[in-house]
Amino acid sequence: MKPQLILLGAPGSGKGTQASRLVSELGYNHISTGELLRKEIKSGSELGQRVQGIMDAGKLVDDNTVLELLNANCDLSSNAYIFDGFPRNGEQSKLLDEVVIKEASSKAVYFEIDLDMLAARLTNRRTCSGCGEIYNLLSKAPKTEGVCDLCGSSLTQRKDDNEETVKTRLQVFKETIEPVLAHYESTGRLARVDASQAPDEVFKALRAITE
Ligand SMILES: [Zn+2]
Question: Which distant-in-sequence residues (6+ apart) come within 8 Å of 118 by Cβ?
Answer without folding.
Answer: 10, 11, 12, 13, 170
